[in-house]
Amino acid sequence: MALKVLRHNWVPSALLVMLTLGAYSRLATSSFVSVDDPAYVTQNPHVLDGLNVESFRWAFTTFHSANWHPLTWLSHLVDMQIYGLNPIGHHATSLFLHIGNVLLLLALLRRMTGKTWASAVAAGLFAVHPLHIESVAWVAERKDVLSTFFFLSALIAYTNYVRTPSRLRYGYVFALLLFGLA
Questions:
Q1: Are 97 and 149 in contact (CB under 8 A)?
Q2: Are the C-beta atoms of 53 and 124 separated by less than 8 Å?
Q3: What 8-state DSSP symbol labels residue 43?
Q4: What number of other Cβ atoms are within 10 A of residue 150's Cβ?
Q5: What is d(CA 157, CA 171) in angstroms, rounded to the nearest whole number?
Q6: 145 near 105, Cβ under 8 Å?
Q7: Angle at 33 between CA 29 and CA 36, to 5 degrees
Q8: Contact at 8 Å (CB) between 182 and 70?
Q9: Digitized pLDDT (tens) for each residue of the chain, 182 residues in all
Q10: What span, in angstroms and rounded, lies between the C-alpha atoms of 2 and 6?
Q11: DSSP string covering 86-146
């Protein structure tokens, strides 16, 4: 019984992580690109300062680059704090968020269908689909992987709410959707 649970829970997840890491392995040698990365990271004075009180306030009040997405700005600020201008770290954050999205999709589909391996195949297609290359490999497109992360999390939270409705569970769904929009 324990082996069956292990096989159904860990093997598909591990395979999906390896598949995604393999598909995006070239990010380990990638640099920033000249389209939007300067405006978002490499030449943005607020982001270059890293995470501090002023940059935190700026993230929630700016429409820089014609968008309001404070969580995206916060993720860039945290990356700058940790990695500086080393593009590998910035790419790694986007890749780890994408891997999280792949695993969230696996969990959501497994929960909705009860079919582990069919869910893993669908999540695998999501992991390597060409539509995601730009979002994962282009640092300025962090907003897409972040929004997807919170949207998938909201869907999982909604399945919990449907099974056992409560105001708290509904509030959790609402909060995750707000994060996805931010």
A1: yes
A2: no
A3: T
A4: 21
A5: 10
A6: no
A7: 145
A8: yes
A9: 444 544 557 899 999 999 999 999 999 999 999 888 999 999 999 999 999 999 999 999 999 878 899 999 999 999 999 999 999 999 999 999 999 999 999 999 999 999 999 999 999 999 999 888 888 999 999 999 999 999 999 999 999 999 999 999 999 999 999 999 98
A10: 6
A11: -HHHHHHHHHHHHHHHHHHHHHHHHHHH--HHHHHHHHHHHHH-GGGHHHHH-GGGHHHHH
Residue with tokens 């909705």: 112
Which tokens in the block code for residue 2? Answer: 């324990």
- Name residue 131's amino acid: L
Task: Kindly report the length of the chain.
Answer: 182
